[in-house]
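Deliverable D2.4 — example input (structure tokens):
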């Protein structure tokens, strides 16, 4: 086990397994295949690479070395050119060893990182195929042991994460926002309103969520998410965790029943598994104080608030999470976003990304179409050249009947927008006036309305295509203008409004 942990904020766990891809002397091996790191810290991902000094009677020279996580259509996107990593990545390379350093880690940095080098040889490009899986995690407080008294709780707390961090890390503990102590655990007495959080020493700005100690050992139901958006026809998982005291009134507690419901009739909770509207479409997947409701073949009528309930052998041993989980079932409503990088002249690319109003479940993928023909299955689609005759759109696998709008060659910034006022003609004080801004832009433009006062001061009004003055006054007279902007440019147009008094 090899661990990097320095005062500069490195907090990682490295599983040291050498992975070799070797063919005629071409070789990439990673120091680690799995790394766990805390949000906000800095991580080093390291590899070594080898190549024959001569090949086909020519001396070999390395031309380019870089790390990437995105690859499609034969393009490997150098992380140094990706705007999401701007100012946060370094390549530290020398003597056939290359380290990727990522600072100020975000949970969105969790990915598989791969190294690639190219040479002057015709076959001299190689990628370490396995890569390194980086998991960026947040912390949470876990109750290891507890004893409940009339007015307090004695408990031993541990600072945990979703992946295993190094055992030697030191933690800082806070109670009610006040620093209490340092150490791997926190043992003491806690009262009903005490909130506890923890952080890795050196990363105190990235604390865990504050937790009521009593809530983890008393009767309770907590939901992983309180709002879920899912697609019609897909499958969704709704998760919860439930807790109860192991003993109550001098009796051992046993769970007798667990179920999910949306309907309550005269204190009767209807188990979804008995509801004809969900027949054959629901499962309860429960164990270790966790329970998942899985609903398949979703319908828009499934949009509702779902709650979990469990019962025990204790007199007051029935409990449900009062907040519940709000499920919204909708069509995907996809859009294609365009992003270009020119940070490295030798590595320019256009990235098309498929976006939905709902977060895509892990088991689904996007399908890309070029001129209405399927060309790939991934979230990102990279192009070396976007030809004027080409068009692109995307859909979710299994939801092809709901494609995104077609994206055509994005060669120009938005054209100057047209602005209109409704109703047209004379505007009288007290009336309702609707200003509309529109532009021919692809990708779609974002609109912003402004008002310019007589003293030339500019007031920002709205970020919508329409701006409504519901009861206009004479003081609202003046020059209004809107801007249309996408990643390719910006344009604007104005209109003069004069309000007539009664």
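Example output (designed residues):
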């Amino acid at each position: 086990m090899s661990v990097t942990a320095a005062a500069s904020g490195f907090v990682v766990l490295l599983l040291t397994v050498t992975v070799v891809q070797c063919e005629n002397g071409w070789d990439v091996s990673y120091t680690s295949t799995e790394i766990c790191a805390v949000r906000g810290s800095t991580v080093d991902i390291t590899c070594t690479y080898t190549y024959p000094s001569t090949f086909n009677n020519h001396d070999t020279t390395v031309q380019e070395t870089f790390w990437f996580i995105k690859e499609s259509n034969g393009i490997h996107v150098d992380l140094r050119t990706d705007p999401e990593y701007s100012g946060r990545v370094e390549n530290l390379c020398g003597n056939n060893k290359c380290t990727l350093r990522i600072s100020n880690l975000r949970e969105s940095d969790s990915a598989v990182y791969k190294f690639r080098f190219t040479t002057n040889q015709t076959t001299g490009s190689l990628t370490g195929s396995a890569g390194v899986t980086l998991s960026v995690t947040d912390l949470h407080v876990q109750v290891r042991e507890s004893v409940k008294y009339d007015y307090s709780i004695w408990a031993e707390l541990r600072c945990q994460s979703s992946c295993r961090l190094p055992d030697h890390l030191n933690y800082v503990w806070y109670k009610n926002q006040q620093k209490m102590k340092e150490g791997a655990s926190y043992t003491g007495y806690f009262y009903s309103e005490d909130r506890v959080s923890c952080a890795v020493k050196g990363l105190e700005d990235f604390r865990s969520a504050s937790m009521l100690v009593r809530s983890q050992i008393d009767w309770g139901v907590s939901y992983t998410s309180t709002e879920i958006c899912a697609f019609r026809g897909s499958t969704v998982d709704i998760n919860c965790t439930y807790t109860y005291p192991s003993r109550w009134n001098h009796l051992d507690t046993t769970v007798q029943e667990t179920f999910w419901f949306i309907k309550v009739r005269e204190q009767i909770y209807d188990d979804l598994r008995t509801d004809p509207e969900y027949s054959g479409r629901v499962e309860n997947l429960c164990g270790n104080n966790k329970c998942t409701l899985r609903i398949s073949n979703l319908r828009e009528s499934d949009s509702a608030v779902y709650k979990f309930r469990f019962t025990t052998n204790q007199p007051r041993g029935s409990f449900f999470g009062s907040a519940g989980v709000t499920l919204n079932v909708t069509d995907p409503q996809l859009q294609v976003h365009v992003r270009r990088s020119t940070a490295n002249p030798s590595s320019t690319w256009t990235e098309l990304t498929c976006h939905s109003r709902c977060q895509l479940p892990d088991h689904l993928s996007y399908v890309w179409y070029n001129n209405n023909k399927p060309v790939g299955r991934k979230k990102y689609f990279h192009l070396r050249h976007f030809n004027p005759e080409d068009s692109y759109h995307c859909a979710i696998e299994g939801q092809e009947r709901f494609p995104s709008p077609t994206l055509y060659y994005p060669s120009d910034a938005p054209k100057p927008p047209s602005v209109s006022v409704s109703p047209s003609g004379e505007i009288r004080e007290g009336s309702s006036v609707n200003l509309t801004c529109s532009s021919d832009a692809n990708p779609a433009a974002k609109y912003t309305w402004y008002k310019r006062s007589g003293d030339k001061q500019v007031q920002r009004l709205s970020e919508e295509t329409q701006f409504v003055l519901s009861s206009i006054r004479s003081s609202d007279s003046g020059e209004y203008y809107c801007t249309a902007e996408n990643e390719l440019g910006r344009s604007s147009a104005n209109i003069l409004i004069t309000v007539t008094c009664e």
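The CA atoms of residues 60 and 145 lie 61 Å apart.
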